[in-house]
Amino acid sequence: MTPVLVPCKYAVMNPLADELNTILEDTIAGRLLSDLGRRFYFPKGIIAQSAEAKKSATMANGTIGMAYSKGKPLILSAIADNMASLSPEESVAYAPTAGIEKARTVWKDLLIRKNPSLDPEQISLPVVTPGLTSGLSCVGDMFISKGESIIVSDPCWDNYSLIFDVRRGAELVPVTFFGVGKGLDMDAIAAAVRHMAQSGTVRILFNFPNNPSGYSPTIDEEEALVSLIRETAEGGTDVLVICDDAYFGLFYEDDISPESLFVRFANIHERVLAIKIDGPIKEDYVWGLRMGFLTYGSKGLGQGHYDALVKKLMGAIRSSVSCANTSAQYLMLKAMEDPRTESEKAVYREMLQHRYNLVKDFVSANSDHPVLRPLPFNSGYFMSFHCNVDAEALRQKLLAEHGIGVIALGEHYLRVAFSSIDEENIIPVFSRIYAVAEKLGEAGF
Questions:
Q1: Do 292 and 332 form a contact (C-beta atoms < 8 A)?
Q2: Residue 369 CA: distances (Å) to CA of 360, 385, 438, 439, 442
Q3: 293 with 279: CB under 8 angstroms?
Q4: pLDDT tens profile 359-374
Q5: What pLDDT is stored for residue 379 in this prediction?
Q6: What is the pLDDT, as a whole number, of residue 10?
Q7: Which of 48-54's residues contact partners 24+ apart within 8 Å by CB, and which partners?
């Protein structure tokens, strides 16, 4: 039976935006707001909850997508050493709109090295964006118009709503990527794609490893996704596939493909345009440097087409942020060339692997919990629970009474960033989460 898809309507003003508009009513600022400006608001989501946790999370702060050890962010030696050694050209000069040429070519070489099945001739030269969020926003500016729809996972990163819904006036179509089984709900994904294909165009966003679930497709699931998109294109539908690869490479199980889904979609069919958004932000532990890359791939495009797309993308960048941070690009070039980097990244990755293993073993040993059901997770920085109690009430109780910071997403999802919890605190933190959730369930929250 085909499910009824209920898109999130952009036309209904968010209550938070309404509140701000009321404050500005009858002022010059309020009168000058554009339609887009009136729709803007700052969500009480990950960032706001993280700020609250920063003040009160005395035991563990599992809210933000960073990797910590002993209260400090992980940092590569090459970054720490070079922060004060950049030349004026490397630190304060403007960068080209599309990014420093060497940064672009080096990142493309890295893409090929990490994804050996990728043909370098079938993709564009990556363009530098000021963070992955900016890259996604540029995709929205270029390819998603008001009233058009895009399929996203449910739950998904809360910023997608601001990027595509609030900014572009698009309709997010949330689909339950993770049902009650062990992995992807392929039936739900296929039903959503086939339903949207009736309009003649499918737009879908794949975020793997997924935020907030921490899941990446198995090799078999990847084949099923590829077959679905190929079938859709062969049926005469145009398909835009956006691969948000923010956490690429952080895979903890052997049955996950080591390559990005972008590799498969970049040369699958002339009716498929694949866009890869990635960068060193999560992969190389440099979150605050705000540097990302956007790469195009399609079987139907040649280098002339890619050049045109890059110029359009440069227009989107130029008209919004002008260019990406210069020093960030040079710092990353130095890190990529530093012989210490790969060994340090291996140590950091092993640290995250150990934390993942502890979380996996704990939830497996407590699979009969009456309130918390973990979503599938096998990669990335996070894992999430579906809660049979109010997630926000659980979050507040954990923070206020136990000094544990986590993220509530909607009414029924709780995200825990094990990446930012020291290994020795994993079991105590998760034990308290389970105990508090069970008490809330008994109390009828």
A1: no
A2: 14, 11, 8, 11, 12
A3: yes
A4: 999 999 999 999 999 9
A5: 97
A6: 42
A7: 49/395, 49/405, 49/407, 49/408, 50/405, 50/407, 52/399, 52/405, 53/399, 53/405, 53/406, 54/405
How confident is the model at residue 43, as a pLDDT?
66
**Strand pairing report for 201-207 and 272-278:** unpaired
Residue matched to tokens 């109010």:
390
Q: How far is CA 353 from CA 63, 99, 232, in A?
A: 18, 33, 37
Question: Using CA atoms, how far apart are residues 280 and 141, in angstroms rounded to an integer?
Answer: 23
What is the β-pairing status of strands 201-207 and 238-244?
parallel
Q: Which of 366, 118, 155 is nearest to 264 (CA)?
A: 118
Burial 207-223 (b: 16+ CB within 10 A, else e): bbbbbbbbbbbbeebbe
Residues of the chain falling short of pLDDT 70: 1-11, 28, 34, 42-43, 47, 445
Burial class, 286, CB count within 10 angstroms (exposed 0-12 / middle 13-18 / buried 19+): buried
What is the distance between the alpha carbons of residues 38 and 339, in angstroms, rounded to a whole number? Answer: 50
Phi/psi at 259 (5° precision):
-105, 160
CA dihedral over 203, 206, 211, 212, signed as positive or negative: positive
End-to-end CA distance of the chain: 33
Q: How many residues does the chain have?
A: 445
Nearest partner of 379 among 220, 217, 251, 258, judged by Cα: 251
Per the CB < 8 A criterion, the answer to whether 379 and 246 are in contact is: no
Strands (DSSP E) contained in 356-422 are 372-374, 382-387, 404-405, 407-409, 413-417
State which amino acid sits at residue 433. I
Which residue matches tokens 């209920």?
6
- Summarize pLDDT for 184-219 with one digit per residue, the tens: 999 999 999 999 999 999 999 999 999 999 999 999
Q: What is the pLDDT, as a whole number, of residue 12? A: 73
Give the global pTM. 0.87
Rounded to whole angstroms, the Cα distance separating 145 from 169 reads 7
Q: How many CA atoms lie within 13 A of 94 on its CB side?
A: 7
* Residues 24, 30 contacting (CB under 8 angstroms): yes
Asked if 108 contacts 306 with a C-beta cutoff of 8 angstroms, the reply is: no
Burial 244-260 (b: 16+ CB within 10 A, else e): bbbbbbbbbeeebbeeb
Taking the C-alpha atoms of residue 433 and residue 372, their distance in angstroms, rounded to an integer, is 9
pLDDT of residue 2: 52
